[in-house]
Amino acid sequence: MRAALRGIEAGVAADRLTEALGVPLPILRPRVAASGIGHLVKAGLLVYLGGDPQFPVVHLDQVAAMTRRRDLPALLDRHVPLGPDQAAVRLGVRRTDFDQVVRLGWLAPVATVEIDYKHHGGVTTVPLYDAQEIALLEVVHPSVDWRAVRTTRAGRRSPLAALTPLVPGEDRVLLAAVARIARVGRAAVVNWRRRNPDFPDPVAGTDVHPQFDRRAVVAWLLAHDKIEVPTGPTLAALALAGAGGATHRFRLDDPWLSLADDAGGEDCLSGWSTDDDEDALAALAAGEFGASLRRLTAPGTGPLAVPGEVRVIDRFRSGSGGLRLTLAWPAGLRGTAGSGPAGGVVRHGVAYAGPGEGCVCRRHDCGGVVPVAWCAEHGDTVGPVLEWHPGGGIRCTDLLLGRLAGGADRHGLGGQ
After folding, report:
1. CA-based diameter of the chain, in Å?
2. From the centroid of its chain, how far is CA 202?
3. How far apart are CA 116 and CA 114, in angstroms?
4. Who contacts 213 (Cβ-Cβ below 8 Å, separation ≥6)?
5. φ, ψ for residue 378, nearest 5 deg
6. Which residue, 16, 334, 361, 382, could crosslink 378 as a Cys pair with Cβ 3.0–4.6 Å?
7. Is the pLDDT assigned to residue 223 strictly greater than 50?
């Protein structure tokens, strides 16, 4: 009885689980609704203490323990179905785009719920969709440009509208398509089929080109850890400094980093942001030379730093309500970020054993030369100068030329 006195309403419990998912809430992650608490009770993850079974009273300490679970996003996807509006948020698209997904036959309702809108139409039956299947759509249908779908501006036709709906019961894939889903070569799938007797049997096709049921294949890939359910967006962490020099930290959800192939181009970074972060980023980039990117950590690349001229070049609000920003900077300024938490451009870019007659920079403990283009010790007048190259940031052109001319021994160049 004493434990029951610590009960909280479903709406309060849902708010606390939502806060545990992240503040601000990441893109591709809807708020936990009060009805979701009822599904967690049905799954045995929370104890029913009374009230409406759909919106039950649950124990405060149990909810607190659940908020600390690292697998909370996966638990919600596995046990809490989503209505159409929530499903669109989970997929990161407009509601009209999600309706196209249903039209194509890629998803079917797993349950329904009746909602009384009172003065706005009375009782309405709303379909519910499996959140895990929604999260897997991007994996299961890799041929779709999901980034283009998510960034379709309000009022524009959905890229999914041009696709043909599936014939019921005929969602089939070839071995090559299975390989694309698992992000492996076709030969790997052939080996899985040969070595695993529980691999799904073909449902159509020929011995040379067998066809498999997509759902059965996806279930097998999940069971054998060949794919995993995406639980949320990837993140990019930025540390920017404006004219005053103070460092401000930001987060971009679902980032897309495009690096130029030559120094004359421009690097771009786009991602989902909040209104408050957008205002702060725009203020930092409003100076004469833009903001300085002390450190950028994004998937697929090493930490980057840019000494200046970072600016906001585009922003738009998608039909699903998300705010997407694009930052840009001259590719020639791109450098490698320092290993410390403060970031900053790596000042010692090329390793060498000892200075030669062509190298006038003094030696440092790390065995590198100072990038003179923005070096407080050398200014911009002392050689050797530095050259930009794709993927590696800045390097010493004098040492590079010496190496190409057979002068690596003169500089003792030990590599970059």
Report:
1. 86
2. 34
3. 7
4. 171, 172, 200, 203
5. -115, -10
6. 382
7. yes
